[in-house]
Design a protein that fits this description.
Elements (H helix, E strand, L loop, with lengths): L9 H13 L5 E5 L6 H13 L13 H7 L6 E4 L15 H11 L9 E5 L7 H12 L5 E7 L7 H4 L3 E4 L5 H9 L6 H10 L4 H6 L2 H17 L5 H13 L4 H21 L11 H10 L2 H19 L4 H15 L1
Parallel strand pairs: 1-4, 1-5, 2-3, 3-4
Helix pairs in contact: 1-2, 2-3, 4-5, 7-8, 10-12, 11-15, 12-13, 12-14, 14-15
Bound molecules: zinc ion (ZN).
């Protein structure tokens, strides 16, 4: 029943439903994986299953007052903590120690209506250090009848002591079939638009729904051109490209995502020469001659450089320097 409403994530759902059936649900879970692929939905379904008085242990019924209140975020034993911004100019919110303390206070009571209190901490990596240390105490001595669920897309940014006290469950990007089904439920999307959005979604629902297809299209073409021209003979272009892209710092993660997918397509063309299976099918005409000019080891080196750059930027690396380093590695591989 209700776990079925979450598309994809079969492995995660299997692990959780097995634990529900066996009565071996952990005190604390860490759901991790890219944004917008169903982590929060699964957390809500787990809370429903733990508290539903109607259906069996492994699922909620979706109909009873308990299931409905959890769904609406109105159940007194279901808590949801997410980052808040301290000012409108702050780029990212944070989870503050006061929020964690308030949650701890409420977790100390027995379940009010249900059987098990469930606390979900969304974007848990945005707990500031004091909040994280305070939360650690709850993980070390979990209150009775309580399940804690941390949700994170960058689990590396969590305190290792927090991670080690949670059972980790990895969530995968959705397959194109699942993304397509979600898009087909939206009104007014033409089939070509659905295909384009599916291809550009990276398996993430939010991206599939909100991607600016014209902008992404421009970006992909820009990247194909960059891969085609980058070389030590054109170092001027390397520095100009890095400077321009570094200025638009918000878009860098997307640039690296699209670059990674394009390089994967190039590697794929090299190995299989089958354009039907490309992610960027519509760019096959430009990608084929590019693949013919590069060796497979060169393409793989470029993909590694892109991945290194992504990690460096998740830390605190300077964007322009990181992009320049990446393109110089591309020159090496050219
Ligand atoms: Zn129910």
């Amino acid at each position: 029943m209700s776990f079925n409403r979450v598309l994809g994530q079969d492995l995660a759902k299997q692990i959780i439903q097995k634990a529900l059936l066996n009565g071996s649900v952990a005190h604390a879970y860490l759901f991790y994986g890219p944004e917008s692929i169903g982590k929060k939905l699964v957390a809500v379904e787990l809370a429903k299953a733990l508290n539903c008085p109607v259906s069996g242990p492994a699922d909620g019924c979706d109909e009873c007052p308990s299931c409905r209140k959890i769904e609406q975020g109105a159940h007194p034993d279901f808590f949801f903590l997410e980052p808040t911004k301290t000012s409108s100019s702050a780029r990212e919110g944070a989870i503050h120690i006061e929020d964690v303390r308030e949650l701890q206070r409420r977790l100390n009571f027995l379940p009010y209506e249900g059987k098990t209190k469930v606390a979900v901490v969304d974007s848990a990596e945005l707990m500031n250090p004091q909040a994280g240390n305070s939360f650690l105490k709850t993980l070390e001595e979990p209150p009775a009848n309580t399940v804690l669920i941390l949700i994170a897309s960058n689990p590396r940014q969590l305190l290792p002591t927090i991670v080690s006290r949670c059972q980790g469950i990895r969530f995968q990007p959705l397959g194109s079939g699942e993304i397509r089904r979600i898009l087909q439920l939206q009104e007014g999307l033409e089939p070509e638009e659905i295909e384009l959005r599916t291809a550009q979604s990276m398996g993430q629902v939010e991206k599939a729904l909100n991607v600016d297809t014209a902008r992404t299209d421009q970006l992909r073409r820009d990247l194909v051109e960059m891969i085609g021209t980058v070389s030590y003979a054109r170092v001027d272009a390397v520095f100009a490209w890095s400077r321009t892209r570094a200025k638009q710092s918000d878009s860098i993660p997307e640039v690296l995502d699209q670059l990674t997918v394009l390089l994967r397509d190039l590697a794929f063309l090299k190995a299989r020469d089958d354009a039907a299976l490309l992610h960027n099918k519509d760019l096959a005409g430009q990608l084929k001659p590019l693949a013919a000019r590069k060796t497979l080891p060169a393409i793989l080196k470029m993909a590694e450089a892109a991945e290194r750059t992504r990690r460096a930027l998740q830390g605190n690396a300077n964007a322009q320097l990181a992009l320049e380093n990446m393109l110089l590695a591309f020159c090496d591989a050219a």
